[in-house]
Structures are given as structure tokens and as C-alpha cells.
């Protein structure tokens, strides 16, 4: 089986924060598929709420590899940083994820971690600790993506991601606007490469 776009990750990938009229999540994955001109059957979303990098290595990555996509999108790590933190395991898992997905000819993309701690209702001391973790995570992500040839969308450096309207009230999940903006950024990043054709 092969599809043109497969996304793996946590609730950011699942689509939380971008709710359809029927109550289901939409999110950036199908929005990106539409921007790439893909039919519904050519897009697969494996994202799940609460997923960590370990979840991806154990559960989502083997499925993603089996579908042999032209494009892979990966967004994961916030759950590691907030509630299941082990810096060595985190770095090892990212290396495993991006190293595996880049073994073929697919285009693989991911994104940096914006300042989510700024919006969380936590004590200042814990916020400072989280910001240290996020800074470390972005440094690891930059190194791993450069080494594996993964496209890195640096949303942490984009001022629009500091705007309140880009996020839901919980501070963790993008709003519908956030998902639309991310889909557009991903489409732009993919279009900047010419090595992969995603038509399906």
C-alpha cells in the first residue's frame, strides 16, 4: 500500500483545536492534502492524542513506513517535554524516527516547538524549567533534521505563532487558524523541494 501524504505525531497532528461542525477534528493534515491537490484516500493521519516520541517509535513509525508515502509529516515531542521527560530518550527517539523515514526517497518535514510554556497555567518556576526543555528540544531537532535531511519548519521563530488567536484556550493546541497557517507553511516548505512528486 502507498499513499502520497502520511502524518504521524500527537494531538497537533490529530487535529485538536480545529473542530468540524459534526464535532470531529479536521486539522492541518487534510488541509495540507487539499493544498497539495491530493484526494482523500491519498492522505493518512496516524496522529493520536497524548502520543510521545516513544509512541511513534513503537506504534506509528512501523505503520508509516509500511505505507510508503511520498511525503511524511511529523509533529511530536510536547508530551515528552511536559510530562514524560527523558532528554536522552527524547534525542534517541527523534534520531530513530527521522533516520528511518529518510531512508527512502520521501520528503520528510517537521516543525520546531514554539513557546507553549508561555500559555500554560503553571507556576513560574515550572514554566522556566519547561522553557529550558523546549530550548534543548529545538537544538536537538535542528541537529537531527540537518543530519537526516528532514525539512524543518521553524515556527518557533515566526512571530505569528505568539498571537493568542493561533491557539485554543488550553494553550496547548492550535486553533483552526493555527492549523490553517501550519498547513500553508508545510505546503510552502514542500513546494520548495523538487525531488519529490506528491501527485496521486
Automatic annotation (TrEMBL):
Domain SGNH hydrolase-type esterase: 7-181
Stored InterPro entries: GDSL_Rv0518-like, SGNH_hydro, SGNH_hydro_sf
SUPFAM superfamilies membership: SGNH hydrolase (SSF52266)
Superkingdom assignment: Bacteria
Alphabetized CDD domains for the sequence: SGNH_hydrolase_like_1
Protein name: SGNH hydrolase-type esterase domain-containing protein
Species per Swiss-Prot/TrEMBL record: Nocardia macrotermitis
Amino acid at each position: 500500500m502507498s499513499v502520497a501524504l502520511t502524518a504521524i505525531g500527537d494531538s497537533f497532528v490529530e487535529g485538536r483545536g480545529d473542530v468540524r461542525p459534526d464535532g470531529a477534528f479536521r486539522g492541518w493534515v487534510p488541509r495540507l492534502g487539499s493544498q497539495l491537490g491530493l484526494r482523500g484516500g491519498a492522505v493518512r493521519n496516524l496522529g493520536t492524542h497524548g502520543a510521545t516520541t516513544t509512541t511513534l517509535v513503537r506504534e506509528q513509525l512501523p505503520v508509516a513506513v509500511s505505507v510508503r508515502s511520498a511525503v511524511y509529516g511529523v509533529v511530536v515531542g510536547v508530551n515528552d517535554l511536559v510530562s514524560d521527560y527523558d532528554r536522552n530518550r527524547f534525542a534517541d527517539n527523534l534520531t530513530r524516527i527521522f533516520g528511518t523515514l529518510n531512508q527512502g526517497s520521501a520528503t520528510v518535514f517537521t516543525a520546531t516547538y514554539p513557546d507553549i510554556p508561555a500559555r500554560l497555567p503553571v507556576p513560574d518556576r515550572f514554566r522556566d524549567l519547561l522553557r529550558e526543555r523546549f530550548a534543548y528540544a529545538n537544538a536537538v531537532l535542528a541537529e537531527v533534521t540537518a543530519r537526516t535531511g528532514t525539512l524543518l519548519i521553524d515556527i518557533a521563530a515566526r512571530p505569528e505563532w505568539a498571537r493568542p488567536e493561533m491557539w485554543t484556550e488550553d494553550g496547548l493546541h492550535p486553533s483552526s487558524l493555527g492549523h490553517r497557517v501550519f498547513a500553508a507553511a508545510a505546503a510552502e516548505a514542500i513546494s520548495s523541494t523538487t525531488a519529490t512528486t506528491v501527485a496521486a
